[in-house]
Amino acid sequence: MSLDRAWDSPGRAATLVLSGVAALVVVFLIVPVLVVVPISFSSSQYLEFPPRGFSLQWYERFLDSVEWTGALWVSVQAGILATLLACVLGTAAALALARSRFPGKALVVGFLVSPMIVPVIVLAIALYGIYAKLKLVGSLTGLVIAHAALGLPYVIVTVSATLQRVDERLEHAALSLGATPWRAFRHVTFPLIRPGVIAGALLAFIASWDDVVIALFISGTRSGTLPKRMWEGLRSEIDPTIAAVSTLLVAVSLALLVVLELLRRRSARLTGAQDG
Amino acid sequence: MSPVPTSPSAAAPLRGAVVRLDRLRKEFGGAVAVDDLSLEVGSGEFLTLLGPSGSGKSTTLLMIAGFVVPTRGEVYVGGNAITRKPPHERDIGIVFQNYALFPHLTVYDNVAFPLRMRKQPAARVAERVGWALDLIRLGGLGGRYPHQLSGGQQQRVALARALVFEPSLLLMDEPLGALDRRLRETMQGELKRLQRALGLTVICVTHDQEEALTLSDRIAIMNHGRIEHLGTPEDLYERPQTPFVAEFLGESNALAAKVLRDDGPRTIVRTTQGLEMSVRAGAAKSASEVRLAIRPERIDFLEPGESRDNVVDAVIDETVYLGDAVRYLLRTASGEGLTLKARCPAGGGPGIGDTVRVGWAADAVMVYANTHAFVSSSGLPPPAQPGEGRGGG
């Protein structure tokens, strides 16, 4: 409270300036993204703003094109499979990190979270080198593994945060009551960390859904993801289909973020109730 | 108090197991948390491990439960060594500190949990949960979630959950620590009633001496990973084996002294401050350094003409009102500080700055050889010690 007041103290003028700057930042960051939305409904043949007329032709073209829908299907598959893989591995890793002590733990944490820190291009080049040897370049398997690595840090971070609020004694209680370690996890720990796992899953999915760099390197011509197809499309055919696809990508990401926020509020409410 | 509903499966009480710890030891790194601890708990006995934090009592409990692997030594329950069994195969009920109720499950599902983990048929689960909820008088609250219950109710649910699968041993970790005073007293009574009626063997860990004194058949006072003194609450309070026990359990005046001479049935000692007093003869070797402990309530204000083995004049430095008693901090002419505890006198009693005559019996002075102070319970015996605990120390 006192901190808030200290923040307020420079007065109304400062607050106004600050709000203005914040508004400008939002405008510069968000508006370009939103511009594609009206363009995608344009009846014009070119990417132009403001759009002329209204038409769903670009969505129609998107859905009629095997190239585009194929890429969408690859993105969906890679996203879901990579998310599942990241969730299983990330939850297991978070549990191990939270519930055990071993030498070099900090190092292991750093290693597991590194895909979030290392520039994606570096990760992509490294993966390309390894995949070339393993003959995984161009395969869905390779893409799923790479995207899982990309999503893993998100799951570890969110699940670790949730685990910190779960009393280890609850797990001890379950064991003392006759639950095997697996059943203790399934019936006690997992239900309690589920919000963290779901949040991590959504973020992992978005990481895969948004990725273009890794896909450029390791997905082949047949198994390109949607962002990769867009990248290629931008170089050859500059028509508003791109805008339609962009709108779709943004909509999915936005929907997932909304779900995430709703989950966060729900879990905050539940833990609040437990405190009371 | 209504009668305890008997188990529908067996009319007989649960019959707690005999528990034996054999030279149980735990080292963390180089530090010894539990130091070759041996102990036997009888069937249906309520034993409390009492001690300050870091005394090894919680580690001992965790080793019995199976959450900490002993460095060496064995745990026997009902004659079987369970030292190498994982926790979920031990069949030991545990009431955790803060209860550890599953927040995402209802009261009913919490209590049903151990039965479901044992794959009991639904009808049997319903029957046993009903029995357990009746046992703790929460029959109507099965549908509530833990956060909708009061602290006392949560405590009882934790107890029901730990008893519903008829464990041979019940462990409790600071079971009443989170409750307010009034509730704690009620729960103490209820806990004792259940334990007796069901014939449970209970091992309880606490740092709360009142809880230990009221609940336990026997208490093991722990310090530095060892048992300082094992005995009945009365034993421990009236005849503490070590100065640590005398000071930890209840209050006592702790004084350092030197033995001067034997004087018939008495031995005369002098404290470092120069206060001479007579103690029970044979308590210490001549010229040796000793530690003395005197319970504040064993020192009395003396009426004119009244006498005791030891009489001294003192000035009242401070008084502390305790409700049912008053604690007086006294200073003797030789400069020795003494604490005296007396019932509130009707007429108000002496006040700060008053000079008073106080006295105590030679038998009220507990004498300990200085060498073994705070180290172990072996060595010099305290005044008369009948029924020294089984296998303690």
Provide a concise account of the structure shown.
The complex is a heterodimer of chains A (about 280) and B (about 400). With about 280 residues, chain A is an all-alpha fold.
Structure, described:
The complex is a heterodimer of chains A (276) and B (393). Chain A has 276 residues and is mainly alpha-helical. Chain A has a single domain, classed as MetI-like fold, CATH 1.10.3720.10. Chain A is built from twelve helices and no strands. The longest helix of chain A is centred in the C-terminal third of the chain and has 35 residues, at 241-275. The two termini of chain A are 22 Å apart. In chain B, helix 3 (122-135) packs across helix 4 (151-163). By secondary structure, chain B is of the alpha+beta class. Chain B has helices spanning 57-65, 107-117, 122-135, 151-163, 181-198, 209-215, 233-238, 243-248; strands at residues 19-28, 31-41, 46-50, 72-77, 80-81, 92-95, 169-173, 202-206, 218-223, 226-231, 253-263, 266-271, 276-280, 289-294, 300-301, 310-321, 325-332, 337-343, 355-360, 365-369. Chain B starts with 18 loop residues before the first strand and ends in a 24-residue tail after the last strand. In chain B, the strands form four sheets. Chain B has a six-stranded mixed β-sheet, sandwiched between helices. In chain B, strands 13-12-11-14-20 form a five-stranded antiparallel β-sheet. In chain B, strand 11 (253-263) and strand 12 (266-271) form a beta hairpin. Chain B has eight helices and 20 strands. Residues 6-13 and 372-393 of chain B have low confidence and may be disordered. Classes of the chains: A mainly alpha (276), B alpha+beta (393). At the A-B interface, helix 8, helix 9 and helix 12 of A face strand 6 and helix 2 of B.
Could you state the order of secondary-structure elements of chain A as H and E?
Answer: HHHHHHHHHHHH
The two chains with the largest interface, and their residue counts, are: A-B, 23 and 28 residues
The averaged pLDDT of chain B comes out at: 85
Round the Cα radius of gyration of chain A to an integer and report it: 23 Å
Put simply, the count of helices of chain A is 12
CATH superfamily label of chain A = MetI-like
Strand residue content of chain A: under 5%
Sheet/helix structural class of chain B: alpha+beta
End-to-end Cα distance of chain A, whole Å, is: 22 Å
**Which whole number gives the mean pLDDT of chain A?**
86
Which residues of chain B sit in consecutive blocks of at least 5 with pLDDT less than 50?
A: 6-13, 372-393
Side by side, the strands of the main sheet of chain B go 6-7-8-3-9-10
Instruction: Specify the overall morphology of chain B.
Output: elongated
Percent of residues of chain A in helical segments?
A: over 70%
Q: How big is the Rg of chain B?
A: 25 Å
N-end to C-end Cα span of chain B: 38 Å
